[in-house]
Design a protein that fits this description.
Blueprint lengths: L2 E6 L7 H14 L4 E6 L1 H4 L6 H18 L7 E4 L5 H10 L4 H5 L2 H7 L8 H15 L5 E3 L5 H18 L8 E3 L34 H10 L18 H14 L3 H8 L4 H27 L2 H30 L5
Parallel strand pairs: 1-2, 2-3, 4-5
Helix pairs in contact: 3-12, 4-7, 7-8, 9-12, 10-11, 10-12
Subunit structure: Homodimer.
Organism: Sneathiella chinensis
Protein name: Tryptophan--tRNA ligase
Length: 332
């Protein structure tokens, strides 16, 4: 069976974009793939984290997986730092990857901004760790959003260079799995910006632990425009807020934007928003309630993370041993 690896960064306040862009897809993939899902806490510390908050955020990622329907018996759920093979392989990949490759990574430029000289070395090199995350398990497929495609291409470059340098076929050239509607969910207050936990306005995002009332309030206040919904999705191009809400509806209903517009063409937002609200509350209400229950039962979440770490380490151990022997290390 093909193997999936993916992770979500434990940065707190997981939101609708995290769910529709990643976590929801993880659930369906369990049917056809061997799935390994983690909280990428080593990536999180590329910028400073308050330690106790980080521990809480790791549990929040695990709770989101579980509440959304990831089965911890069928899939593996763990925290990245609990399997040392990630860090070991990342160093080897640091010695395989080229500086020029890293300089092309647009996400570092975006995150470091004008203070790139003050950014951590970890933030600069983390695409190498991301490659190690995937290849520690010889994963064959990775579900990615549009903004991660460049990192997956780098993973393929590193795998290919390692294989060429050592005359082996150690690593597979991992394939992306890119999903349909609303993989990029935008702010409810500004349709030109991605939904983000760092936005100062709580009304810009729906978090996974929002109550049913909170979800309804935020969608009621979501920015729209004065025009009715069009018949053709192409006519949403210059209407970012409308396009975002239609995209969210399409993703929640598992249909295309065209299907949504077939039903709601000509409708004002006074009609469309309540329908979207009902759909969102129906899907997210139970997830938020289960996440809250899990966050109040740390022992249960920690036990699942521990079991997942042991199972992940058992897969990684022979792979990292093979890599060390290939490189020329003496393996006891």
């Amino acid at each position: 069976m093909s193997r999936i690896f993916s992770g979500v960064q434990p940065s707190g306040n997981l939101h609708l974009g995290n769910y529709l862009g990643a976590i929801r897809n993880f659930v369906g993939l369990q049917e056809d793939y061997e799935c390994i899902y983690c909280a990428v806490d080593m990536h999180a510390i590329t910028v400073w984290q308050e330690p106790e908050q980080l521990r809480n955020n790791i549990r929040e990622v695990a709770a989101a997986y579980l509440a959304s329907g990831v089965d911890p018996k069928r899939s593996i759920i763990f925290s990245q730092s609990s399997v040392s093979a990630h860090a070991e392989l990342a160093w080897i990949f640091n010695c395989v990857a080229r500086i020029g490759w890293m300089n092309r990574m647009t996400q570092f430029k975006e995150k470091a901004g004008k203070n790139r000289e003050n950014a951590s070395l970890g933030l600069y090199a983390y695409p190498s760790l991301m490659a190690a995350d995937i290849l520690t398990y010889k994963a064959t497929h990775v579900p990615v959003g549009e903004d991660q495609k460049q990192h997956l291409e780098l993973t393929r470059d590193i795998a290919q260079k390692f294989n060429n340098d050592y005359g082996t076929e150690t690593f597979p050239l991992v394939e992306p799995l890119i999903f349909g509607e609303a993989t990029r969910v935008m702010s409810l207050r500004d349709g030109s910006k991605k939904m983000s936990k760092s936005d100062p306005s709580d009304y810009s995002r729906i978090t996974l632990m929002d109550s049913r009332d909170d979800i309804a309030k935020k969608l009621k206040k979501a920015r729209t425009d004065a025009d009715p919904l069009p018949e053709d999705p192409a006519d949403l191009k210059d209407r970012p807020e409308a396009d975002n809400l239609v995209g969210i509806y399409a993703a929640l209903a598992n249909v295309s934007k065209a299907d949504v517009l077939k039903e709601y063409a000509g409708s004002q937002f006074s009609t469309f928003k309540p329908a979207l609200t009902d759909l969102a509350v129906e899907q997210f209400g139970p997830i938020g309630e289960e996440m809250k229950r899990l966050m109040d039962d740390k022992a249960q979440v920690d036990a699942i993370l521990k079991d997942g770490a042991e199972r992940a380490a058992a897969i990684a151990a022979p792979i990292i041993r093979e890599v060390k022997e290939t490189v020329g290390f003496i393996v006891p």
